[in-house]
Design a protein that fits this description.
Blueprint lengths: L3 H19 L6 E5 L5 E6 L12 H12 L2 H5 L2 E6 L3 H10 L3 E6 L1 H7 L16 H4 L9
Parallel strand pairs: 3-4
Antiparallel strand pairs: 1-2, 1-3
Helix pairs in contact: 2-4
Amino acid sequence: MIDAHETSFLRRAIGLAAEARAGGNPPFGSLLVGPGGTVLAEERNTTVTERDISLHPELKLAVWAGRELDASTAAATTMYTSCQPCGMCAGAIERSGLGRVVYALSTEQLRALTPPSAPPAVQLDGPHLLEEARVPIEGWPA
């Protein structure tokens, strides 16, 4: 469970989501709270207005954290977000070293609230060329 203080941060993330939607973007918002309880940064989804599919608020904050926070501060920082991060954002959050994510809606709850979408049209074909592809990867990270 989260306490009243954390609830206020989660409500702020929901408010940022409302602002994103009012601005013509998908309704998602997030903020980072540092180890001392101070809001370090806030973001809204801007994928439509900036015409960039990667501009999810969670991804923008993970990139910011990876660039601006040292490892120990990042590990003690919490992201509060209006919805469970997608796969792209979850990968970036993991790489940024953030310590915790608190979200309002789960992916399943989001899907129940939104119209069904068509499955991706991209066809994946692989893996191939294992012996060649492994050469630049072996020993990394060193």
